[in-house]
Amino acid sequence: MKKASLSRLSSPFLSLEHGKSLKLPLFLAFQDPPERSREHSDPSSSSYEDGDPLSFQVWRTTGESCPENTIPIRRTTESDLLRANSVQKFGRKRGRTAFRAVRRDSTSSSHEHAVGYVSGQQYYGAKASLNVWAPQVNSQNEFSLSQMWVISGSFNNDLNTIEAGWQVSPELYGDNYPRFFTYWTTDAYQATGCYNLLCSGFVQTNNMVAIGAAISPTSSYNGGQFDISLLVWKVFISCVTIFLCSH
């Protein structure tokens, strides 16, 4: 797929382009989210050896980075679109499957999931630490993931979600590597929303994070354990509501 880009770089698991980033002075005025707890801020508790909180992204091991006012964008290929069967389906969750996943009950033997949740009157954000594995899926149409949701609305057409985590999805990425992802929807996965940067509606400003990039190292049975920490936080600036997602 041809996109306007400044330059291109390659890592062992990802072909990236430096795309122009929107200039958003508003982002400079953000109030800080709550401080991370001591166990998360103590370098000795981190599984990543070099102490770089972004070192889990394989592409950063090349030493390359994106210039100022640009962001790393995973290059969409013809093979990506062919696996999706149609342009309309590319980068989107399947409505019924996604709807079952976000529900706390399970009515289908074809979709196995476990959900932990809290509910209440008012929340301004959430954070989670997700253990990262590299499970092998049996077919291209299957996937495995670990993620966090921030949800509002009912489980009807007004469901709103902000999602982030890691996933193994041969259909979306063409391989079995665990990859960092984001997702959003405003109508229960019907007509809005997509993975990563594959549609409008989600604005990335950080040039150090490649959404869709492979994660390494991963956890192993009776071996090393590795996790990523995610934070979704809501802030108010001059009556404008903005969501931050970082890790």
Structure description:
By secondary structure, the chain is mainly β. The protein has one domain. It has four helices and nine strands, in the order E-E-H-E-H-H-E-E-E-H-E-E-E. The chain has helices at 38-41, 78-84, 95-102, 170-173; strands spanning 8-11, 14-20, 70-74, 125-131, 144-152, 160-168, 179-185, 227-237, 240-246. The strands form three sheets. The chain has a three-stranded antiparallel β-sheet, with no helix packed on it. The two termini are 29 Å apart. 23% of the residues are buried. Mean pLDDT is 74; it is low at 22-34 and 36-50.
Topology, pairings included?
Blueprint: E1 8-11, E2 14-20, H1 38-41, E3 70-74, H2 78-84, H3 95-102, E4 125-131, E5 144-152, E6 160-168, H4 170-173, E7 179-185, E8 227-237, E9 240-246
Antiparallel strand pairs: 1-2, 2-3, 4-8, 5-6, 6-7, 8-9
